[in-house]
Structures are given as structure tokens and as C-alpha cells.
Design brief:
9 strands, six-stranded mixed beta sheet
Amino acid sequence: MPESETEGREMTATPIETATLRPGFADPVQHAQQSFRLILEAMSRPGSLTELTCPLEPPQPFGPATAAAALTLFDSDTRVWLDPAAHSEEPAAFLRFHCGCPLTDTPGEADFAVCLAWPEDFGRFAQGEPEYPDRSTTLIVQVDSLDREDGLVLSGPGIAERERLRISPLPPDFTARWSRNRAGFPLGVDLILTADRTFCGLPRSLTVQEA
């Protein structure tokens, strides 16, 4: 993904007609709790796939799982960075209205990042601090498909032996990028992968290898 053309410039709110604003969760409390459990399970059992069941019609180009993660995890205290593909009028308005989250144009300041294309360098984002490794950016990366057959070999905490995960699309140098991310553990970024209504977690503690 090329460097964001918006870096270094302030993001300003864009007016949008109320009629075009997509609704959030039909039952905000119940559906947010459900979504949180699904994300938590995906992160604690890397390589597992969890499925969103509640109805949700997100603004394009967000998929349902991406929008659900935002509605669940973002609030007025979380700074959110959107990559160029995600930072269009309707998604930005959706996040501001339903989550109240401030948007930042600086990846290194973000608590969360929404990426509709793979970032070239995970090091652009907040890595955490030795005393506070949780002060890192969590990346929500939307892909076309996730499958537990073939693909990458995952091992580490939360996995009994190993798991297989196929991600499409996937950068050809993904394992090298991930190795650099894992090398600084406990610092580094965590990934929440989404595909349509599916969640999958890749915490920074994970070892990822080619098959």
C-alpha cells in the first residue's frame, strides 16, 4: 500500500446527508457484546474463525465484520487511523456518528487502524512501550477471504500445536513483515483480520511461517 496522501494534513469532518448514514447495531448492547466475544475468541485462539450473526448493513467499502469491530471497539477515547481506501465520506461519517472516535492522520498516534489494503510497514504504527506494551496500534485488516485449509502455518500461545490459515489477498513477503513485527515482542502490533462476516486474530506473540 502506498504511503497515505493524507499524512501530515489534518482530517476534517465531511458533511453527509442523514438519510445516507447507515445504521449501527439494531440492539447496540447485545450485539456489541456478541461481537466482543467473537473478537476475543478469535484473538485468544489464533487461526480460528468466528462468524458474526447479528444483522448489520455497513457503509461501503466496509464489510460487516469490519463495521462490527469498529462499533464494538471504538469510542470517544480511541484514536483511529483510516487508510486511503477506508477514508471515504460515508465510512468516516459512520464512525464519527456511531462511535464518536477522533480520526488521526498519523499512524503512530492511532489506537486502532482500519486497513482495506495491506500496509507495507507495520512499523509505521505505535509499537507500545516497554512498560506499557498495550499502547500499540491494533490493526483491523479487511481481506477478501479467510480459510483454515492450507496457507500459512501458525504456532504460539493459544494454539495446541499448529494451525493453518489461508488469507486472500496476502502480500508475498508477509512472513518477513510478520517476523519483524514479532521480533520486538512484547512490543509490536496485533491484527484483527476480517472477511465479510468473519473474524480471525493474529496477536503479535504468534509465529507465522510458510507451509
